Amino acid sequence: MFGGCPLPETTPLVISPTDSESDFVADLFDNGNCDSLAAQYQAKPSRLDTFNQIASSLHLPVSTNYSRSSCPNLTGISARPILSCTLLNTSEKENEDLLNTPHGTLTVAKEGNPRGPVIITLHDIGLNHCSNFQSFFNCSAMRSILTKFCIYHITAPGQQARAADIPAHSLYPSMEQLSEMVESVCQHYSVSHCIGLGVGMGANVLLRLASRSQQLIDGLIVVNCNSQTSGWMEWAYHKVNMKALKRAKQLPDSVVDYLMLHNLGSTVKERGSDSVSIAAMYRHHFRTEVNPGNLARLLQSYVTRSDLNLSRDTETSFKTMNRRNNMLNVPVLNIVGEQSSHVDGTITFNMRVNPALCTWMKISDAGMVLEEQPEKIAEAVGLFLQGLGYTLRMGRSRSATVRPNKLALQIKGYETPLVKMKVFNINEDLLI
């Protein structure tokens, strides 16, 4: 019962990751009706504003047994959980295009400066362009990049939020075919060259595109990138997950746990309240927004990926059986979180590319770096783009330490301001 009025049976349970928020909401709804609640909070404007903010974040189904006028503060309530940060799939439909390619249909969302240089993004498994990149590009440190560049967010087939089932008779594209689909997107929008930003699975796809069409990619920004085939443990995990996903209507707990490990790492609870809140947000996303059958097909393609056979040695590249050039000659920013499960994979990838063109970064106290450390990543991306020749107005670095005004290192054998050189003979017993 709510204010003397029965709630519908389909009303979901409101869950909060923090005790303070849950206790506050419980106090609001217990032992009172809507009229007394409204009168109480009209007398306290500050708490009324707080309640309105909480009520606006909920979307409970509207009951026909009471009118909105009797409960004015409950207008627009929703089933979204109360979280300190909220994952929203709110991309504007007018900025989204459905593109048919020889290997399937892609969703492309556009934002930024339409006349600027192009950045292509591709997400990781279990995610889409909203859940993987929206909060990162919306942070204040990325404003200068959004005003300068045109961003094309690509979502793999069937990976949109609450997507419909892919027909059983259609073949899901492989990793190589996904890279060809990205190239088709560039051709559709008449993009002659671009910068790639990929995470996990998306990084592997963009890396394949860069190794095949190096004239198309000016630079690569990859997060949690693995350039090898799947190992035995990864293969076993994926096989178990795909079996569990076959007839599931929502993601089983075992699959959710694996996606949490894959995207956020294994020590979320030890990284503070912010990381725990992010974990609760993505756990809710995996359970409610991801299509199990479509995810199983993407996992099948990712687990059967081929090795890219990259090499930094020219002689080794020509000796391989693959005829195409396996030297990656594009600048690469290789990023991984300290708590991520992909650290070893990024190190192996770093060893297979030209060290003069690749920068490897390990971000401390983070597993999902775009969510946990967006300002550091934005700063690194901005510097990388400046290195490619793009002019950007970057804000003052918050991660840089205080720089000394003058050289503090004293060279051994010299004194300042008068330079005196001490020379010793072989026996070191006579001062010349």
Architecture overview:
There is one protein chain. This protein is of the alpha/beta class and about 425 residues long. The protein is about 40% helix and about 10% strand. It has 15 helices and eight strands. It has helices spanning about 20-30, 35-40, 45-55, 130-140, 145-150, 175-190, 200-210, 230-245, 255-265, 275-290, 290-305, 315-320, 345-350, 370, 375-385; strands at about 95-100, 105-110, 120, 150-155, 195-200, 215-225, 330-335, 360-365. It has an eight-stranded mixed beta sheet with strand order 1-2-4-3-5-6-7-8, sandwiched between helices. A hairpin with a 2-residue loop joins strand 1 (about 95-100) and strand 2. Helix 6 crosses helix 7 (about 200-210), helix 8 (about 230-245) runs antiparallel to helix 11 (about 290-305) and helix 9 (about 255-265) packs across helix 10 (about 275-290). The longest helix is centred in the middle third of the chain and has 17 residues, at about 275-290. The radius of gyration is 27 Å and the shape is globular. Mean pLDDT is about 75; it is low at about 5-25, about 30-45, about 60-85, about 315-325 and about 400-430.
